[in-house]
Design brief:
Its EC number is 3.1.26.4. The protein is of the alpha/beta class. It has 2 domains: about 60 residues, 3-Layer(aba) Sandwich (Ribonuclease HI, Chain A); about 110 residues, Ribonuclease H-like superfamily/Ribonuclease H (Nucleotidyltransferase, domain 5, 2-Layer Sandwich). Helix content is about 40%, strand content about 25%. The model has no long low-confidence stretch (mean pLDDT about 90).
Length: about 200
């Protein structure tokens, strides 16, 4: 079976990411100066599209290779949170790193913080993947959330009130799960500087 490819089109009749050559060909055929490139993962496709041109992306990739920067592990999962305000309306989710397929999406929750969402997303992913027998790594771009999971405690300064009762119940459940369970999934820090935004990002920055 041939390897899966994604096609990034910077200049063409249509631009964006296409999942097969037929779609890509339709977007670039007949367009003078078309710029496109095939990549092997959806994560790389999204990263490439953030650059203004094919040449700019290829220059960046060559610099990565020269610097010995390894790409993210394809068979892994990513979590992220988004909060409108601090505190504010909170959501969090988990996606497969290579395919971008969403594993879960929780929220919105009133009166939360981004750090709480990152913490809950990691624990939710750990619990769900353990239930499925999956030991793949989990990426997060939050060092604070990684520390809280390591310490098995959500050390938020946010005070519980009648608006976030549901959120604090989830925090208690997550802390209990960490106390009562072990896991084999490596928890890894996403390298935003070299890889771009984490695939689970909500795109609201």
């Amino acid at each position: 079976m041939p390897d899966k490819k994604f096609y990034v089109v910077w200049k063409g009749l249509k631009t964006g990411i296409f999942s097969n050559w037929a779609q890509c060909a339709e977007a670039v055929t007949g367009f003078s100066g078309a710029e496109f490139l095939s990549v092997t993962t959806l994560t790389e496709a999204h990263a490439a599209l953030r650059f203004p041109s094919r040449k700019a992306y290829q220059t960046y990739r060559q610099a990565q290779i020269s610097a010995g920067v390894a790409p993210p592990l394809a068979e892994s999962y990513c979590v992220d949170a988004a909060c409108s305000g601090n505190p504010g309306l909170l959501e969090y989710r988990c996606v497969h790193t290579s395919t971008g397929k969403e594993l879960f999406h929780q929220g919105p929750f009133e009166n939360g913080t981004n750090n709480i969402g990152e913490f809950l997303a990691i624990v939710h992913a750990l619990a769900l993947l353990k239930k499925k027998g999956i030991t793949s790594p989990i990426y997060t771009d939050s060092e604070i959330a990684l520390l809280w999971v390591k310490e098995k405690k959500c050390k938020t300064r946010l005070k519980p009130d009648q608006t976030n009762t549901r959120l604090f119940e989830l925090i208690r459940r997550a802390e209990t799960w960490l106390q009562e369970n072990t896991f084999e999934n490596p928890l890894l820090k996403w390298d935003t500087e070299h890889w771009g935004q984490i695939p689970a990002d909500f795109g609201r920055k």
